[in-house]
Amino acid sequence: MKGKEWYQADDVADEYDDKRFTGGGELIDLREKQAVLDALGPVEDKRILEVACGTGRFTVMLAERGADIIGLDISPAMMAKGRKKAQRAGVSGSVEFMRGDAARLPFPDDHFDAVFAMRFFHLADTPVTFLRELRRVSKEQVFFDTFTRPSTRVLYNWLLPMGSRLYSKRDVESLLADSGLSLAAATHDFMLPYGFYRELPGAVARPFRTVDTALGSTPLGDAVASVSYWNAKKE
Q1: Is there a smaller number of Cβ atoms within 10 Å at the N or the C end of the chain?
Q2: Does residue 220 form part of some domain?
Q3: Where is the Methyltransferase type domain (predicted)?
Q4: Can you give the CATH number for the domain in which 13 is found?
């Protein structure tokens, strides 16, 4: 997986949330969380797996809403942050963090009501392998996001320390077909790339986000959006 060593470094975990989800990055955090909630729907008493859970942004959010959730990640430092979040939120009893490999998930077939992965597929060297594993352990639903090609993200993609795989719609359709999944719904967002928002204070970023959202609702928006959210079902 791209950037595997970089991602597991302790200093990366220490700075991960602050660098990405403060200031203008808060707008990214809010949109991603809403995308997960929209896709999964009511989660109370559902058994859910999050692959590449990182610092537990989504894991803890869903536990607070009553999910029985496991967050799996390769980085102990990231998961330590997630456990602290769960403790502060008072949901340690309904969330479990596990270290594991997304290419060999340590769960039986059809074990979870839903499986999702955010901020993961842009790092995957063999995405079909990972997606087949997500499908295998889910009873029905698999939800994930991708960074999109073509989009404004290509302007800075090569600067990222861990690299980044970009996907066209055709790429994702092929990936789903090879994994035995069918597309149930897709949404596309952020004409301006994430990196742009993260560099701005929140008060400055919000007007840009308003314009971005308005333009994104036009036919042009889907064509040049930098992020796509894919809600898939088992065939």
Answers
A1: C
A2: no
A3: 49-140
A4: 3.40.50.150
Helix, strand or coil, per DSSP, at residue 199:
coil
Kindly tell me the burial class for residue 147, based on how many C-beta atoms sit within 10 Å of its own C-beta (0-12, 13-18, 19 or more): buried
In Å, how far from its chain's centre is CA 127?
14
pLDDT for 47: 98
Q: What is the pLDDT of residue 8?
A: 53
Residue 193 lies in a domain: no
Domain count, the chain: 1
DSSP classification of residue 197: H
List 144's β-bridge partners, or say none: 117, 230
The stretches in the chain having pLDDT less than 70 are 1-14, 151-163
Task: Pick the closest to residue 118 from 152, 144, 83, 90 (CA basis).
Answer: 144
pLDDT at residue 146 in the model: 95
Lookup: tokens for 126: 């063999």
d(CA 196, CA 201): 11
- Cα–Cα distances in Å, from 154 out to 81, 119, 225? 30, 16, 12
Residue 219, domain member (yes or no): no
**Is 208 inside any structural domain?**
no
Contact 29, 187 (CB under 8 A): no
- ∠ at Cα 72 (70, 74), nearest 5°? 165
